[in-house]
Specification:
The chain is α+β, with helices and mostly antiparallel strands. Helix content is 33%, strand content 29%.
């Protein structure tokens, strides 16, 4: 698929992003201060140690049960991932009820029930509460643990790890936690194929028996129930849950913050953007006097669209689709401040500098009084809305117990939020945002971003995808003597069928299934082309029809977006008329080509060829072994921003003597479209009428 097609779909990606935007310029008008009333739970404890909290709420005929196994975090070392394996098996049948029968009954009752290694949650109409509670207890005490199910879950987890192997998001998360806490810390260790393969079925069952028990368990019941009835039910269904041998584990201290601010770089050669994580460890607990101030401080820095980071990196600079921060709490003293963004390769260094500037700003400049007021109002609104969810109330009840909080912690919550002052913000920012001890974790394409990162003057240390220290990566290999860019292009033409075969093609029709990252629908795309430069493209969504079209007949053209038809302007027409042929490589001028280097994409060596057209440069990458085109990279001005589009081609298949890529992935910023070709027709199915 040539450049004109990629440009069309890149524009479609931009349209998706634009339509998703909302007006954040005006904060909501604050209403009257709400009164917070959270009922105090009635409590009892079973002989086996299960602690039960009951909150009667008769507004709706529903009830929810939140089970929490409150074990201290534990590192599992060479068998990391064992907790995920056993957790995924829980809640799927019992020793007396098959998996299918169990799930069918839950569905029949209109209830929900799910489990993990740290507990479970169930909800239903009150009239079915007795049976749902019985099923929940049976699933917790007598889970159906079979080796066959274990093997299935193990295979699924291994497949997930393989899928994440090249994911910059997965790499960034893994490396960030490992460097912050240390790989021997429960929060810093990570799962690998090796650790999963180390886990046997017996290991998983033993882990369940050791850690999933009532020793440190809490059950919170909220809803249209009576305390006396609930107490009888729980005593009946949970009394046989046996305690296990006491496990006393000490949570180790996390790694210390770095002595000086530094960049920790992980090279992912085929990354289309950089993942930034600016972080330092903090020791913040919910019962600290700074807790409420810390919430608002983080909200102002990076809590959403009104935050410093978002305003700068997104709205002002256009570097990213979003920039946020978090300031965590942990009763074991192991949490992090973390500012994150995904940015274009070309602005990685600038994004780092701007993010650091905003962190310094909140530490050194008093926050605007109106901004502080708006941040409080937003937080209050979110807090009140959250009270509508039973799980929120359950969490609040447990938080008071587990975090040694005063009984009035949540009833006085909003008052403490509203008491936060400008001076408080600056003090807490200096306490928890360690400007001089930050890890700036950058996961990205070193060949494209490292040179500029080095110019920032911030020391750089290098790590692999598993947080091991490593040497600075080497980004290019020596080019074969005498090889030219023109020769690379000619080798590609030969590889896909040869100039004679390509020249015989007058029309191409391609139909594809489209996957839009994060979208609930799967469109279909149709592309029609006729030599020398006629084109028609559309994307159709079932039930919605064509959501985008573009047509050019060689002299004039139009676009249709969201039902609005726009005639192509002179600038676009000029570009369209200048396009030649159905295969651009046949018409590239050798004087416009430059063979820059050999790089690596997805583990394969590729030739990087620079194509210059006037003042505009683009890049094409060809596999050194197959000679196929595997990637193109183009930049263009869109909506006042420079957007880079990366298109990956793979899965070449032959049609009438010519090979076409049947898989194509287009990434513009965080938006990604994937195309799987379902049909290719050569010299049929296309006529002049298609372009009118």
């Amino acid at each position: 698929m040539n450049n004109k097609i990629v440009a069309f779909f890149a524009l479609f990606i931009m349209t998706i992003g634009a339509s998703a935007q909302i007006d954040r310029s005006q904060p909501p008008v604050a209403g009257p201060e709400p009164e917070i009333s959270i009922d105090k739970p009635e409590e009892f404890t079973l002989k086996n140690g299960l602690k039960v909290l009951v909150v009667e709420n008769h507004k709706l005929p529903r009830v929810s049960y939140s089970l929490r196994i409150d074990n201290a975090p534990v590192a599992t070392g060479k068998k990391a991932g064992i907790e995920s394996l056993i957790g995924s098996m829980l809640g799927n049948g019992t020793t007396t009820i098959s998996k299918d029968d169990f799930n069918e009954e839950i569905d029949f009752l209109g209830a929900s029930l799910n489990f993990g290694i740290s507990g479970g949650f169930a909800s239903s109409l009150t009239k079915y509460s007795d049976r749902v509670l019985e099923l929940m207890a049976d699933a917790a005490i007598n889970p159906l643990l079979t080796e066959e199910e274990f093997d299935k879950e193990k295979t699924k987890l291994l497949e997930g790890l393989k899928a994440d192997a090249k994911s910059a998001d997965a790499i960034s998360g893994r490396v960030g936690l490992a460097l912050s806490y240390g790989t021997n810390h429960p929060y810093g260790e990570f799962v690998t194929e090796e650790t999963i393969k180390n886990v046997t079925f017996g290991d998983a069952v033993a882990f369940y028996e050791k850690y999933f028990n009532p020793n440190h368990a809490y059950l919170v019941v909220i809803g249209d129930v009576k305390y006396k009835d609930v107490k009888k039910q729980i005593q009946k269904y949970f009394k046989n849950w046996s305690q296990s041998v006491a496990v006393n584990s000490t949570v180790p201290k996390p790694s210390a913050n770095v002595q000086y601010t530094q960049i920790n770089f992980v090279d992912v050669p085929d990354a289309t953007q950089s993942n930034l994580s600016i972080t330092n460890n903090v020791n913040l607990k919910m019962n600290d006097e700074d807790y409420h101030i810390a919430l608002i401080t983080n909200n102002i820095l990076g809590g959403g669209g009104e935050g410093y980071l978002f305003k700068n990196l997104r709205e002002d600079k256009g570097y990213t689709y979003g920039a946020y921060s978090s300031l965590g709490t942990d009763r074991y003293g192991a949490s992090r401040f973390n500012a994150t963004a995904k940015v274009r390769n070309a602005v990685t260094d600038s994004a780092v500098i701007e993010a650091l500037k905003e962190i310094k700003r909140i530490r050194t400049e008093p926050v605007d009084a109106q901004l502080l007021k708006d941040a409080k109002a937003k937080y209050v609104g979110n807090f009140v809305m959250a009270l509508e969810r039973p799980q929120t109330i359950a969490n609040y009840a447990l938080n008071i117990k587990l975090n040694d909080l005063p009984e009035d912690f949540y009833t006085t919550y909003l008052q403490k939020i509203n008491d936060v002052t400008v001076e408080d913000i600056q003090r807490v920012a200096n306490k928890y945002f360690k400007e001089d001890n930050l890890r700036i974790i950058v996961v990205g394409n070193g060949a494209e971003v490292l040179e500029n990162l080095e110019k920032t003057g911030i020391p750089i240390k290098y790590f692999d995808k598993y947080a091991n220290a490593t040497e600075k990566p080497v980004f290019s290999k020596p080019l074969p003597a005498g090889l030219t860019a023109d020769a690379v292009i000619n080798n590609y033409i030969t590889a896909i069928g040869g100039e004679a075969n390509l020249s015989k093609i007058n029309t191409i029709l391609v139909n594809s299934d489209v996957t839009i990252q994060g979208a609930p629908f799967k469109p279909k795309a149709t592309v029609k082309q006729m030599a020398p430069n006629k084109s028609y493209m559309e994307i159709v969504v079932e039930g919605m029809g064509a959501v985008m079209q573009q047509s050019f007949n060689g002299e004039s053209g139009y676009m249709v977006q969201q039902g609005q038809k726009t005639v192509m302007d002179d600038k676009m027409l000029s570009v369209k008329k200048a396009e030649k042929g159905l295969f651009p490589e046949l018409y590239l001028d050798a004087s416009s080509l430059e063979l820059e280097s050999i790089m690596t994409i997805d583990g394969a060596d590729v030739y990087k060829v620079k194509v210059t057209n006037g003042d505009v440069a683009s890049y094409r990458y060809y596999d050194t072994k197959t000679n196929y085109l595997v990637r193109t990279e183009e930049s263009a001005e869109m909506g006042g921003q420079t957007m880079t589009t990366i298109t990956d081609y793979s899965n070449y298949k032959e049609v009438d003597g010519v090979k076409f890529p049947n898989t194509m992935k287009i990434a513009t910023g965080p938006q990604v479209l994937s195309f799987e070709t379902t049909e290719v027709k050569i010299n049929e199915g296309v006529s002049d009428a298609d372009f009118n």
